[in-house]
Amino acid sequence: MKTAFLLAAATAVTAQGFANSEDGFAQWALHNNEEFTIEETFQRFHIWKGNYDIVTKHNSEADAGLHTFRLGMNSLAALSHEEYKAKLSYRHNATKTAPVDVFDPSPSTVGAAPASKDWRKARSPKLVSPIKNQKDCGSCWAFSAVEAMESAAAVHTNSTVQIGAPQQLVDCVRHGKDTCNVGGEMHDGYLEVIKEGGLDTEASYPYKARSWRHCKFKPDSVIKGTESFKGYKQIKVGSEKALLAASAAIPTISIGMDASSNKFQLYKSGVYNVPNCKNDPDDLDHGVAIVGYGTEKGKAYWLVKNSWGLDWGKLGYILMSKDDKNQCGVASDATYPTY
Q1: If 0-12 CB within 10 Å is exposed, 13-18 middle and 19+ buried, where does residue 114 land?
Q2: What is the mean pLDDT of residues 139-166?
Q3: Strands 117-118 and 253-257: what pairing?
Q4: Which CATH number fits domain 86-338: 3.10.180.10, 3.40.640.10, 1.10.357.10, 3.90.70.10?
Q5: Would the CA dihedral through 104, 107, 111, 114 be positive or negative?
Q6: Catalytic residues
Q7: Which one, out of 30, 69, 94, 299, has a CA that is 20 to 30 A from the CA of 200?
Q8: Tens digits of residue pLDDT in 159-175
């Protein structure tokens, strides 16, 4: 049984948002609706303080111009790096289960892409759904696939985006074998929706952050347009030029990436640039979605939508380094559903 961990509210805060003290930790716990047993409190506080030191050191270096991004004491700040990495659930499947249609257009075919694009700003109709939260289930791949499908359906039907059901993919893909602890891959989600005849709505098939191992799909409540998917395109592996051409025309693209660094865990703002980030498809461990691109302070970025709630990153988003040797594998497994 959980016992709420409560201490006197702290009044002093720092650039990290919370004082580096027991009171600061209590304030962080209350902010994130965390409850710990007495035993857990000491363990979590010790981890939290270690992450606080990482954030403080990194941000001091950023102030000195050594980094292009900043860290923060977000909702993952009481997780050890090992616990954090265990949450990552993208599982690359080198053998696709259907013929792969590769997207690799010539510049003469697609024309010049605009200098920047933010598909969140589309207002009529709205094409990008709000930030979601996968919570303590390794279902990033399902969220990533759903983001791409619900956005594609909105474009196809010229209607405001509807919220899709990641739980459908968790329960139904591979007969429920891709559990919260196992993980999965996004293209399997597309193929399952094609097989079943559409993507259910979140309202009809609510997310429970657990694996039921029993598919409860309801064909009478699918998002209009998702019943017509015919397949998916795989953007040429490793090509940020092809990814740019796709992103200029397609509101949401599902991607896998290497998110294993504690810098990603604690990311807050700025253009994320970690040169030792891996980009081989077999090293990718997290499913997210690209919804645009641009520049900040002269640094090019991909606008990436995560599924860890609004408290992480820039209200749920991260600016990933763009045109920098396919850093973190942003172009190593990028896909979107097709009609």
Answers
A1: exposed
A2: 98
A3: unpaired
A4: 3.90.70.10
A5: positive
A6: 140, 286, 306
A7: 94
A8: 999 999 999 999 999 99
